[in-house]
Amino acid sequence: MKRQGLPRAAAVAYRDRLSRWGAEHLEAALPASGRRLVAVDPCGSADALVRDITEVLTSICACVYERRAANTRAARAVAAGEAAG
Q: What are the residue boundaries of the structural domains of the chain, listed by start?
């Protein structure tokens, strides 16, 4: 029975999806193990980068505001408990 090896290529949509920084180091190291990086769109797209940054900022803001809302609800519950007791 023939043993299955590791994949010979890593495919990514954009080169920077693998790593925002240091992708060139990964690309340089892959051939040493007989592998390569295949980018469907090697140049990427400015629109895609803007969309990614917007999604990250939206996610961070959602976490911050949810945390703030939870703190506000907890403070109200404590105040209501102190007023009642």
A: 8-44, 45-85
